[in-house]
Amino acid sequence: MDNGRVDENDRENAHRGRNETTEERADRRWTELLQELRVAQTGVQILFGFLLAVVFQPRFTTLADTDKTIYVVTVLLGSATAAALIGPVSYHRLLTGRHLKPETVVWASRLTLLGLVLLFCTMCSALLLIMRVALHNTLALWLVGGMALWSFICWFVFPAWAMARSPNGRDGSGRDK
Question: What pTM does this model have?
Answer without folding.
Answer: 0.79
